[in-house]
Amino acid sequence: MSTILSFTRIRSASIRVHPWFLLLFLFYTAPATFAQEPKPERGSIIEDRAARKLLQAGDARLEIGENEKSLEIWESVVERYPRSAIRFEAHIRLADHLQKEIRDFDKARAHYAAASIEENPDDEQRAYAFLNTGACFYEGGNYGKCFTIMRDVIEKFPASPRVNEAYYYIGLGHFKLGHYSRAIDALEKVGTAVSTDDSKTEKIEAGKRLYIKIDDLDFAILPPDAKIEVTCTTTTGDTETISCDPIGRHPSLTLGSVTTVLGSPEPGNGILEVRGGDSVSVTYTDAFTAGKKFDQKRIREVIVVGNAIIHITDGSYKQPLQAAVLGKPLHLQIADADLDTSAGTETLEATLQIFRPKTADEIDDELAKGVASGELTESPDGEDMKTQINPLLLVRSVPVSLKESETSGLFRTSIPLRLGTSEGAVSGQPGQTIRLAYLDESNLTDSPILRLAQARIIEGNLGEMRVTRTDISDEELRLKTSLRTAFALTEVGNHYKEFGLNAKADLKYAEALDVCENILGKSQATGGKLLEETYVQLWRIYFAMDQLDLALGMSRRLLAEFPTSSFVDEAMIQQAHVERKRENFTRAISLYSAITKLPDSPLRGEGQFFAAECYEAMALKAPGKQSEQLFEKAFLEYSKVYEQFPDSGRVGDAVAKMAAFYYQKKDYARAVDVFENVLADYPDANFLDVILFNYGRCLYKLDRKPEARRRFEQLINDYPESEIAPEANKIAKALTTAGF
Predict the structure, then answer these.
(1) Overall domain count for the chain
(2) Which domain holds residue 399?
(3) Using one digit for the tens of pLDDT, what is the confidence trace for 293-314?
(4) In the beta sheet, which residues pair with residue 428?
């Protein structure tokens, strides 16, 4: 997590105080609030207690692998206790499972949306729900909508650590769309958030950026290009000088940043090298204070910490596993920057715990004792009190040591997992659970956190990327694993395709297709969700391979066999894309228009935008007057995007297209108004390089040449990879030569 230091000047009208103080803003701290909580309704405490127990019962079922049962229990929390705040946690549990395990992004989004409402008193929970709503749109390829949600996270929850992830997703989305300058700009902001809570210990996570913000009214009288310098010094010996630049239209605010990395100090290299347990002194020299003093140094200390991340992984230490195979090595990995305290190799201590399911008699005995002691009570709706019992029993604990790898702060080890019940050994039985536990004593919070990773012990073998013959008893689990493998292979192929490595992409698509075709028969025998997801994965592979007939046929099969599928709108839009590729624009428009009529589809705005693009494509191919009429039709269809679907991620793109039409009609004044609106309100819109170019041309036509030059220069600086940047550069140079 990055940290932002703020040196702020204040005045007091009632008492005389020193006019300057240092205020550290932490990105992950929510502002303190002193508003009195509303008095709960009668019975809400009882409901919360019952809802909490039911929620924990669902958690316990998940721990022993009863996923479907855990989902049912969490859903019952929402249904039985609609007034309890615990229902929001249940929505989050459901959404997380649907998003990360089942990958049903539409259903997951609905639960995240239910947890993000203002009625939820937990702002951090709301921020998490908002963020993951956007993440679902990202995973579904709806980057425009993802951008809108992520900007909402940044605006509504500026002090939340979720701001980091919001910028991260914005950056990834722009990278996917080929907007590399905007991707870099967003990714560089990862960690940026503001908090006014001065009561907590200042911390920065090793490896993140340190941001320094200075608020000084004296800056208003400085020259526009003046730099404010701040010195950062670590206890291990690194010193770096940071230049802070003005922020936007605020003449008193400047912002600077420096990258932190784990490593030995190299003063003056522009990177702040830190170690675990290190601290950073940030020093700013106040040239003239309100108390009429000169060159007063303001110093703030920041502690370097690391948030530990732990996994039980495959042999490459890249893929977390949910199953551990008897007789095979158990690969453990913990990343914790706090333990990297020197240039040497460090070690880290953790614990492996083996759990077995409790027997029915053990659960009954524990239930009887709980009832007798009063610890267990029957809930108002008479639910089975057995659900309140933890179904797992700790069998043994074994200490393990992990050794630091070549990567600083990353600790790994490999231990054989044997069949048996030996004390002090890493051994277990099929069906038991193995858990890696590590106490993260130093982190971004104020207290230690117990980090956990766990896996079920099974017999057999686990493949990493290819399907192999296995002895996993749970056939449904095997099929789900194969589907995930196919998805991963398709994603790898898509990445290769993005970089123009088509031969490698085709190999990965072929592997993914082989996996899906091998399980299709068994998926058809199983039916239900597995078959539905197999159809979806197959059409995605066919579409990626440009086998359009097969993609079309598979999506039609999905619609025929699963008419209420949450993938219906995605299937329709894929069919429309196929027709559009074949230049069957009339058929494509019909399909896109049908999507706009689906009441609950998040792709309605996308469908409207793509329909408008079809009319535009037809206009470019049509002759004379027919072309003009089609352009008019396209203009009207683009206007419907923001009129009928204002929440669509395509609004900025649609407005940009409309501005281009105004330019073509030589209505330059109206085009300028639209351009200014897009730049101000839609920072993630596509075609911003084209907008800036046309904006500059419109300003030139209106004889506002200095402003035109600035827009061309903005295009050159912000979008150097754009195809029209060289032309913009020529025009900007010509205007500069002419004295504008």
Answers:
(1) 5
(2) 309-374+385-458
(3) 666 777 888 888 888 888 898 7
(4) 419
